[in-house]
Write a structure and sequence with these properties.
The chain is an alpha+beta fold and 158 residues long. It has a single domain, classed as Aminopeptidase. The chain has four helices and five strands. Strand 4, helix 3 and strand 5 form a beta-alpha-beta unit. It starts with 5 loop residues before the first strand and ends in a 24-residue tail after the last helix.
Length: 158
């Protein structure tokens, strides 16, 4: 298998079981069941410029990512491409699938007028960091988040 055999396309509802299997490889505790995933997939379809993609080799879904093209008032109205939820089957890593997916994501972002593409990954995923850097991504600033399920309400003491 090589990157020349990789086909990247928008995902359809029938791809969701394969996508969920890829996400389970990353974190089995952090995956929807099929019905929940279908509801999210349907909501995503209503966003402008937000889609789930799959990478196939010989008809098998071996990778996935999402791309959101976000509008900006800042940066003279230039758009930002947000790449999320990137996963490649552990058995297929190192065969060019991730590189092919990211190439498609970056090309789509360019075609849609994005001035930058951004992504985030967990601190512990050092192999992923090296992979993204090999594609020309640079570490920039700090990423912060707050877990809204556990954080105190605004104005409450922690």
């Amino acid at each position: 298998m090589s990157a020349t055999n990789v086909s990247v396309r928008p995902a359809g509802p029938a791809d969701l079981p394969a996508v969920l299997a890829l996400y389970r490889e990353l974190d089995a505790e952090d995956v929807h069941d099929l019905a929940e995933a279908r509801a999210v997939f349907d909501r995503m379809a209503r966003y402008p410029d937000y889609a789930l993609y799959v990478a196939e080799v010989d008809g098998a879904v071996l990778g996935t990512f999402t791309l959101l093209v976000m509008e900006n008032i800042a940066h003279r109205g230039s758009r930002t491409g947000i790449i999320e939820a990137v996963a490649v089957s552990a058995a297929a890593q190192g065969q060019g699938i991730g590189r092919a997916m990211m190439g498609v994501a970056l090309d789509m972002a360019r075609e849609k007028g994005c001035y930058k593409a951004a992504l985030s990954t967990r601190m512990a995923r050092e192999r992923a960091h090296a992979f993204y850097e090999s594609l020309g991504f640079r570490r920039h600033g700090f990423s912060f988040y707050t877990d809204l399920q556990e954080a105190p309400a605004s104005g409450e003491a922690a």
